[in-house]
Amino acid sequence: MEQRISLITLGVDDLARARRFYEEGLGWQPRDAPEGVVFYQLPGIALALFGREDLAEDAHHPVDGRFSGITIAINERSEADVDAVLAQAADAGATILKSAERVFWGGYSGYFADPDGHVWEVALNPQWTINEDGTLTI
User: Fold this and answer.
1) Residue (of 122, 111, 113) closest to 21 by Cα position
2) Contact 3, 10 (CB under 8 A)
């Protein structure tokens, strides 16, 4: 099997609220939005928002309300960029879980939860390269 991720789907409680957060709050533009789902094209990958109950039904896995241990990361080019993304997310209604700080692995990172509780890390890893097109090279 080829090593890649093509799509991350977030189960959301209120699709309209989630869209407002990502589009109005974070400034993301949808690529496609058929009934009940919205897709955002990201560099080399896509993100989908889909009703949480609909996703549970589709996956044949109940919503159990526990943190799954999965986070999604946005890697930035500078500490100032990390701070700016966290501030933008907070202004859009995110909950800041951890303010950005220098971390043991030599980078700088913080965490926020979107309105549906999905945990995002915003980080600068000085050993990694963020390419012109936004893709990551480790």
Assistant:
1) 113
2) no
